Structures are given as structure tokens and as C-alpha cells.
Amino acid sequence: MVKDKTYQVAIVGGGMVGATLACLLADKGVSVALIDAGEPMANWPEDTYDLRVSALTLASINTFKALGVWPDVVQLGEQAVEKMFVWDHFGSGELDIDSADAGEMQMGAVVENRITVLAIWKKLQQLESCDVFTSSQLEDFNIDDNGVDINLSEGAKIRAALLVGADGSNSKIRQISGIDDYGWEYQQKALVATVRPEKSHLNTAWQRFLPEGPLALLPLRDGLISIVWTSNAQITEANLNLLDTDFCEALAEASEHQLGAFELVGARGAFPLKLQFSPEYTQQRMVLIGDAIHTIHPLAGQGANLGLKDASTLAAVVLKAHQKGRDIASQQVLRRYERQRKGDNLLMMGIMDGFKRLFGADDMLVQFVRSSGMGAVNSSTLIKNQICKYAMGL
Fold first, then answer.
1. How far apart are CA 55 and CA 117, in angstroms?
2. What is the pLDDT of residue 1?
3. Domains along the sequence of the chain with CATH
4. Pairing, β 182-197 against β 262-277
5. pLDDT tens digits, residue range 64-105?
6. How many other C-beta atoms are found inside a 10 Å radius of the C-beta of residue 332?
């Protein structure tokens, strides 16, 4: 740990989004301090799987390829997603999308979060421009016209031209800055688990819309499936408490046996769902990225990708200012990032919230229109290719 040092950028939060931003900046010679309360898991038993996975878009994968991080992700274990199959519990509405029709080998990949984070940190530790402060927490900070004084736990003090909050939905930096957050609880919980299907997942992401919420079956390495099963809190708790065999039977039934029977691998977990956003992305010499400014419904697994887009956009505007010898933390620079990201983030949040409400509606007419609409979209190659490109983040 380096104490009492000055950096160009200090990033609080060493998860996927914060660590990616640190990589993007330090790789181009910007001095970075990355501050995180923990350290990524360096190794794990071979037959275990992380319950937290992300469906990374092609755009996110390209970011990792440009950083030279992707080969490590591949070596540790990723699963390509080539197709998407969506169907409704009501009627015959279904949507079948293939990346080959859009001229791509794959739409993206499903990767356990621990694998992605470990690969990024491995790269970070090779970069001379980045100092990593592990087992450190931000206590408070003071901003003046020229920089930010940051006080860390255990008495360490550092100074930076720019402070970045990548510290999650309960962001301490956002709270200290007095930035409001808005949103609502969905009164739903998502159950997550890893299962072994009887049939091949065919490199396909499967999603069925049920009356209580969507069930997503994401292809995972080693032929496994990562499930995200959204229901109201009572149903989720009941599913958590089922015997393993009963749970697998309920899952097979909920997925209409598309992948046959299931065998549970490891534990089950659950988390409450909410939509949360902040209208203010930046203040003097301070900026927020990732879940610190937006938390969305996990319907299409876009949360991590939105955060990675934030990181890429912020890195681009900071590096441009740096190359031109300008103040990287000027409001002109930070507002440019906010303008570029706010529209995209709000659009995705609106789409996910709309989908959640549309597919959660049990009104007979809404169900009929929904089912018919999916059928109409499925018969249009043009619309399907646009959906595919959007799903790729391109």
C-alpha cells in the first residue's frame, strides 16, 4: 500500500466496472488508485460455480479484448451465447433469435463474475500506473478547486484530481455528495442457482415469461445452466426452501421441460429486485459510474454491460482531455460523459421496466396482444436482427 501519494484518478470500488475503468486509464499511462474493501478470489475448487454471472454483450467482450483481458477469461471459463429463445406462458408467442442471421458468431458470453474480476485484476497488477489499495474503505473526502483529499480506513490519505464512485447501489460517495436516488422496489426476488440440464443448452439463452415473473436459463461453462428465476417474495422463499429434488422438478415444470430434467449444483441464493437511478452523475471533481447511478431489473442481464459502457465512455473523455493537456476533472469533461451515458441508461431502464410490467400483466387482452406481438416480431428477420444487434451492444 502506498500512502500520502497524489494520483490523477482515484476509483472507489474494485468490482467489474471500477476495475475495468482502472485498466482502461492505467493502460494509457494515467496514474490511478483503485480502492476496494476486499480482494478478488484468486482460486477456487474446480467443481464450484459462482452464483453471480453476467451475460456480457459483444461490445463488453470487445472492451476486454482491447485490454488483453479476454484470453484469461476464456482460459478460466466462459460460455458463448449464439442464440436466444423467448416464450410466453400464455398462448403460442415465441421469439427465436440467432446471431448467425445478424452475421456474427455469437451474441455475447455468460461468465461468472469472479472469473471476469480476477482476469481484470490480473491485468491491473501488471500496470505500473495503477496502485491497488485492498482491505481499504473510503472514510470521507474533501474537494477543493485543484483536487480531492481522500481519507481511507487505517489512516491512509491520498489525493487525486478526480474521484470516481464505482461503489455500487449503496454508494457511499453518492451519499456523502448528497446526490439523490430515485426508484422503487419491485416486490419481487430473483432466485439464482446453477443446474445441470438433461439436454444440451445448445449455446442458447432461454427465457420464459411466467405470470409471477421471468425465468431465465443462461448457458454456462461445462454444459451447465445458470438460472435467474423472478417471482414475488413468497414464491421465491418457498422455492428456496424446497428439497433439491423438488426444486429441480418445479424448475423443469416452469421451463416446460425444454431442457429436460435438472440436477442442482451447489447452493441456491436470492436477492430483492429494484429500479434505482440518480439524475446527477457528477459534481465538482467527482463522478459516478455503474450501479452507483443505475440499478435495473435483471430481465435481460444488461446491468453489468451498462456499467461497462459507463467505464468505457468515462475513460474515453478523460483520456482525450489528458492527451490534450487539459484538466481531466473539469465539469466540461465530466458533463460530456454524463450527456453520452444518461440517455442510453434511461432508455435501457425504461425498456426493462416496461418489459417487466408488460410480461407481468395478467389481463387477458394484454396477454393476447403480447403473444401476438412476439409472433409478429418472430416472423420479421429485419426486426429480429435489430434486436440481436441491440442484445450484442452494437
1. 14
2. 47
3. 6-44+115-182+276-354 (3.50.50.60), 55-63+79-113+186-274+363-392 (3.30.9.10)
4. antiparallel
5. 999 999 999 999 999 999 998 888 776 566 778 888 887 888
6. 10
- The Cα–Cα gap between 161 and 138 comes to 16
State the Cα torsion 200-204-205-210 to the nearest 10°: -70
From CA 345, how far away is CA 279, in angstroms rounded? 11
Query: Reduced to 3 states, what is the DSSP secondary structure of residue 105?
Result: coil
pTM score, whole prediction: 0.89
Percentage of the chain beyond pLDDT 90 is 65
Q: Could you list the beta-strand ranges (E) of the chain.
A: 6-12, 32-35, 53-57, 79-81, 83-88, 94-98, 108-112, 130-133, 138-143, 148-152, 157-165, 182-197, 204-210, 213-219, 225-232, 262-277, 282-283, 286-288, 294-295
CB 229 within 8 A of CB 254: yes
Strands 213-219 and 204-210: antiparallel
Eight-class DSSP state of 296? -
Which grid cell sits at 366? 394484454
Helix (H) or strand (E) holding 278: none
> Residues 161, 147: contact at Cβ < 8 Å?
yes
